[in-house]
Write a structure and sequence with these properties.
3 domains; single chain; mainly alpha; Arc Repressor Mutant, subunit A; two-stranded antiparallel ribbon; disordered N terminus
Length: 262
């Protein structure tokens, strides 16, 4: 009987998964994770041309445990981290250090490549890696106090039909960004810390001009720099409203302080 080495068998398995995989498949599956890995491998081999937005999105998706833990190393064991996946040699890993991908992104940014056009079809959006983060950021923005979400609410936020909202809800749940609510009953979900961190990391990588056009502004912790960022990001009327809200907050704090003294 002819024997096949483990490495050769593993390569055959990867090639088979590659033919079946696609970013529009279910997140958290080997096919989905492999599709992202193959995209990154193609970029590193210079087989495809991408811009920094695409590459950032693929990288951020691959950093998710739902992605790298679905991929196997040469010994047939799941990768323990994104960095470990990067260092592993193809066909199993990317064959580079994680910092090399960061350097490639910086290089693409310096060339001023165009951003990706977002498809109009909300179902076709499932194959656009940037939309995993872009659309989820709208949910995070709409639920600052971590309110429970269901498919109708997601559809309302994204302006999608119920069936399309369900598709996106399932994808985010598979990624670990949404989890079933323990207090609001069946069919309701809440945003996880993993989901919040994924959006935060993605937003911090976006060009400043693009962020200002969206719903988010990333503010430094340094008070002076935070103030400068707010002044640049908001119109005068919006700044007055922010100032009023901050003033109301301190008034409430002062009232509470005097009540405690009395």
């Amino acid at each position: 009987m002819k024997t096949i080495s483990f490495a050769m068998q593993g390569k055959m398995d990867y090639e088979t998964l590659g033919k079946a995989g696609g970013i529009s498949t279910t997140p958290g599956t080997p096919q989905w994770a492999l599709a992202i890995k193959l995209k990154l491998q193609s970029v590193l081999k210079k087989d495809v041309v991408v811009n920094e937005e695409q590459l950032k999105a693929w990288r951020e998706l691959m950093k998710q445990p739902a992605a790298y833990q679905q991929l196997l190393d040469e010994q047939g064991k799941p990768f323990n981290s994104y960095e470990e996946l990067c260092r592993a040699q193809p066909p199993y890993g990317l064959g580079c250090e994680a910092k090399e991908i960061e350097e490639l992104i910086s290089s693409l940014e310096s060339t001023g490549t165009n951003t990706v056009d977002t498809p109009e079809d909300p179902v076709k959006d499932l194959g656009n890696p940037s939309n995993y983060f872009h659309k989820f950021s709208k949910l995070v923005e709409a639920c600052p106090d971590n309110q429970a979400l269901n498919a109708p609410k997601i559809g309302e936020i994204l302006d999608y039909a119920h069936s399309t909202a369900q598709l996106w809800r399932k994808r985010w749940e598979h990624l670990g960004w949404l989890e079933q609510s323990k207090s609001s009953g069946r069919g309701f979900y809440q945003i996880t810390e993993s989901g919040k961190n994924a959006v935060k990391n993605w937003l911090e990588q976006q060009p400043e001009g693009k962020l200002n056009e969206e719903l988010w502004v990333v503010v430094p912790k340094n008070p002076k720099k935070a103030a400068e960022k707010l002044i640049k990001s908001f119109k005068d009327e919006e700044l007055r409203e922010i100032n009023q809200l901050i003033g109301e907050y301190f008034s409430q704090e002062l009232t509470a302080f005097h009540s405690d003294i009395e």
